[in-house]
């Protein structure tokens, strides 16, 4: 039994090593177009930024280490140029010698990944991308050159995860960085009000963020924007997104998905029963709807690689739909998300309940607590968790991971209320931020409280609803939502005569507003609370 | 509708405030025996250690703040001395004036907590305990006095969570600390081999740990041990455990559980339909078996307090059994656990699969990775997760919280393999430590690998099994399992003639051993892997 694997990084190498563990006698050949296998893709931006200083640290395995431990025949600089499905063989070109040869297979695994998209604009060839070790060496040299120039500047096209990571790392290398993003926000896996927190943080660290703009031309030391402006740019990076490498599969007549990836079943099998595919090149199934999705993430690539080996070895396994849990850090801020955003749920026609909170990562009375903003998107009909997002400092990763696990376990939003999470004052709170999301979800589900979202506020005010800031006079004086009068929550019962029949209350983060709304509702008012309070509205 | 609540800290105060939120017209009286309500119990050790320097930070709410915001009648220094169930009233004694009065109720909530146990030994009255603000002030003064003495020493009776926290905090204040623990290990929620890691860490920071010993007498400046030895002790602390405060309930004829707490149903209702109870004084249901359990933790106390208010307000809710997720930190090491230990599962007659791993909290190629030791206890019959433990640095809390959530969601151990957890190199790994536990669980479930536990090794060797250390010669030379020969994993295929028919392999953490065992099994050997490798065996 001979398995040929095209692509020797996350998914491909997971398949190769698992297959050896399952079958000592299997013949395994890995063909990698670039000069390295099993390298640390996700670490590349940090090598550029000198956070990782040892280039060898990026090379997790080498062809010789894989040969010694796993008996795998790994060939780098080896491009597969075609697949002959009838003959069950591939044509390989050695990029070192130019030599071409056939390699036959019993099973073929496609793990070619996805290629950074470079927009077809004049001068685009100067735009650098970051996919493999070769790209990294090239970018590192370019950064060295730019950093020693008179006015080191960088323009990053695209404000996704890689763009934001590179913005940090290029800044740390002394470059003045501008991110140019076509959408009206950074980081598409977040909703706009959470992405805004990242934007502000980047700005505080000297990164300029231009949204709703694109680069239309790359010049020798500048770029031209869709706005007509010109920006200096010693360095230009394309981090707009990636496109599945489907060329080989398409040429071989394999079925593709509607959005362009290689189509596979739950065994990662393509439309040819002898050919499997994994990783960024394939279509995945969305965990919320089961629909096709492109989710270029390391986790699913690795797991699906392992699974393909199981399938080839005859084990009964099936891949699961993906949530797309992801995280990014920059200048000490962390942004993470799992499942769906509000905008995506609304676009799909779902009726949603949305919850914003601004908790601390651990008990406030213990020194060093760091703040975060959390958002939970809940199916209004079923109380199912559709997705969650978090932006802040320490502990964001933990809360998103807990919620992702709850989603995998089929827990509802209200079920989050009684999760038992580890608590000592330096690690959490007796009512953890995730429990609090559950409490609020339950209150919303049961109609104990009614909230208004930040983006609904203007329409409500236009209808003439009364807006009351229930914080202290001091907080009110430092800035409030436009149009609010001030009645502190502790004075509310004594000042009911100042409160109209239809009222919208707000506080700093939503908690006092909730209390106020409960009190007022029981005194005959229609009282709604501004979800997430002043902080969500003002995006601070 | 009038509700009287006895006890104004976690469970009692959660009940009081939730009840106000649900019912603006409810009459709510909170009677607290000590001088403070709603204080930060879990912060008290850190005030002793000057980590929390502002005493007011411990006081989350005061009677006047609760009056202003919630209209709750909070009375401190107010001890309830009896309950008249027929008359539905309690007798209250003011500890300030000595005055006694009746307070009638429609619903009564018992949240009296649990009292630190002080052993009945000579001189025990000098032993300090830490339960409330009064105790804290007393201990803080005693520490100040001891710290300024010529040879500041402290003996802590009991090596549970509070004992370990106090050991850190008293050491930070300059005291030479000894923990005296009757059991053969610290931290009962951990198994012995993980607790040993905490013991070693404490020793490295100057704390002496004596297990299998107890204090038999407390002298003026020393203690006598069960071993006959005498230890100097400027300060003596009793942190042996707590006992549910059931006196009032018992005197009122309420039913108690077999292990001593107040018996309640899933609505936290006692055997008297008008009386509820929550918190450390009550019996809880164990999430694994549904049996009665005493679980004195802040999380369940707070959640059950909230639930009691719901029940009193007529809402349809029910409490869930508890896992007992808990965490403790000391001198930078973290120990956390959820569910059952191996020793508990074995004592209960369960057949278990046990997994030890020693992962890093994030990708090793990114600077600053910290190590941890994880243990998963799995029901061998069903693949259900019975419990998990972790000891190490950053990220232990996250992994235990994720596993606790998986247990709540009914996921099996093998299901952990495909959890989608947030990954970027500074936060985790593409195959997170929790995923790795799932991979191993699946391999064990499917019979792909067979492991031997550290405590089974001697018996296996006595049977004549061959023991092979598959690490490098350098690692082997620095220390190996007694009796092992060395064949590095990468040389195994070439040196098969040196391998007998029944072999036990080990490496450093278990991964190379797994590879070796897979290879050997496919070459006709019975090959088992030492679970957790040299590190679990040597407890390093």
TrEMBL record, chains A, B:
<dbReference type="InterPro" id="IPR004099">
    <property type="entry name" value="Pyr_nucl-diS_OxRdtase_dimer"/>
</dbReference>
<keyword id="KW-0676">Redox-active center</keyword>
<dbReference type="InterPro" id="IPR036188">
    <property type="entry name" value="FAD/NAD-bd_sf"/>
</dbReference>
<dbReference type="InterPro" id="IPR001763">
    <property type="entry name" value="Rhodanese-like_dom"/>
</dbReference>
<keyword id="KW-0560">Oxidoreductase</keyword>
<dbReference type="GO" id="GO:0016491">
    <property type="term" value="F:oxidoreductase activity"/>
</dbReference>
<keyword id="KW-0274">FAD</keyword>
<dbReference type="InterPro" id="IPR023753">
    <property type="entry name" value="FAD/NAD-binding_dom"/>
</dbReference>
<dbReference type="Pfam" id="PF00581">
    <property type="entry name" value="Rhodanese"/>
</dbReference>
<keyword id="KW-0285">Flavoprotein</keyword>
<dbReference type="Pfam" id="PF07992">
    <property type="entry name" value="Pyr_redox_2"/>
</dbReference>
<dbReference type="InterPro" id="IPR050260">
    <property type="entry name" value="FAD-bd_OxRdtase"/>
</dbReference>
<feature type="domain" description="Rhodanese">
    <location>
        <begin position="461"/>
        <end position="539"/>
    </location>
</feature>
<protein>
    <submittedName>
        <fullName>FAD-dependent oxidoreductase</fullName>
    </submittedName>
</protein>
<dbReference type="InterPro" id="IPR016156">
    <property type="entry name" value="FAD/NAD-linked_Rdtase_dimer_sf"/>
</dbReference>
<dbReference type="InterPro" id="IPR036873">
    <property type="entry name" value="Rhodanese-like_dom_sf"/>
</dbReference>
<comment type="similarity">
    <text>Belongs to the class-III pyridine nucleotide-disulfide oxidoreductase family.</text>
</comment>
<dbReference type="Pfam" id="PF02852">
    <property type="entry name" value="Pyr_redox_dim"/>
</dbReference>
């Amino acid at each position: 039994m001979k398995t040929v694997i095209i692509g020797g990084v996350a998914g491909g190498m997971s398949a190769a090593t698992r297959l050896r563990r399952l079958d000592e006698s299997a013949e395994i050949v890995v063909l990698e177009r670039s000069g390295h296998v099993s390298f640390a893709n996700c670490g590349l931006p940090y090598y550029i930024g000198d956070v990782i200083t040892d280039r060898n640290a990026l090379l997790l395995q080498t062809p010789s280490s894989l040969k010694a431990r796993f008996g795998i025949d790994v060939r780098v600089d080896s491009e597969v140029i075609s697949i002959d499905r009838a003959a069950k063989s591939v044509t390989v070109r050695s990029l070192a010698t130019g030599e071409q040869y056939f390699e036959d297979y019993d099973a073929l695994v496609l793990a070619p990944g996805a290629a950074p998209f470079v927009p077809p604009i004049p001068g685009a060839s100067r735009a650098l991308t970051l996919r493999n070790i070769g790209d990294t060496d090239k970018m590192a040299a370019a950064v060295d050159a730019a950093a020693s120039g008179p006015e080191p500047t960088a323009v990053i096209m695209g404000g996704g995860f890689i763009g934001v990571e590179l913005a940090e790392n290029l800044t740390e290398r002394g470059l003045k960085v501008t991110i140019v993003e076509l959408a009206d926000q950074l980081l598409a896996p977040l909703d706009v009000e959470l992405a805004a927190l990242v934007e502000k943080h980047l700005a505080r660290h000297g990164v300029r963020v231009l949204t709703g703009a694109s680069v239309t031309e790359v010049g020798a030391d500048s770029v031209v924007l869709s706005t007509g402006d010109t920006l200096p740019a010693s360095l230009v990076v394309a981090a707009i997104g990636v496109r599945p490498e489907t060329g080989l599969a398409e040429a071989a007549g394999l079925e593709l998905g509607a959005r362009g990836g290689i189509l596979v079943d739950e065994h990662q099998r393509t439309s040819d029963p002898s050919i499997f595919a994994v990783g960024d090149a394939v279509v995945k199934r969305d965990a919320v709807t089961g629909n096709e999705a492109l989710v270029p993430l390391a986790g699913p690539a690795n797991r699906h690689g392992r699974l393909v080996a199981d399938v080839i070895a005859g084990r009964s396994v099936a891949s699961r739909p993906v949530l797309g849990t992801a995280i990014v850090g920059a200048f000490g801020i962390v942004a993470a998300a799992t499942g769906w955003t509000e905008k995506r749920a609304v676009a799909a026609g779902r009726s949603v309940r949305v919850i914003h909170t601004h908790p601390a990562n651990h008990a406030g009375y213990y020194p060093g607590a760091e703040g975060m903003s959390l958002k939970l998107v809940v199916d209004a009909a079923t109380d199912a968790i559709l997705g969650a997002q978090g932006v802040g400092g320490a502990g964001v990763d933990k809360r998103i991971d807990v919620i992702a696990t709850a989603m995998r376990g089929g827990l509802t939003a209200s079920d989050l209320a009684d999760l038992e999470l580890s608590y000592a004052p330096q690690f959490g709170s007796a009512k953890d931020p995730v429990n609090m999301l559950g409490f609020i979800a339950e209150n919303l589900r049961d109609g104990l409280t009614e909230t208004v979202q930040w983006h609904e506020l203007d329409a409500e005010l236009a209808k003439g609803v009364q807006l009351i800031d229930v914080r202290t006079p001091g907080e009110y004086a430092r800035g409030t939502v436009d149009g609010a009068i001030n009645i502190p929550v502790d004075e509310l019962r004594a000042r009911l005569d100042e409160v109209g029949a239809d009222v919208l209350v707000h506080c700093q983060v939503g908690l006092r507003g909730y209390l106020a709304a409960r009190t007022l509702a029981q005194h005959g008012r229609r009282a709604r609370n501004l979800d997430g309070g002043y902080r969500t509205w003002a995006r601070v």
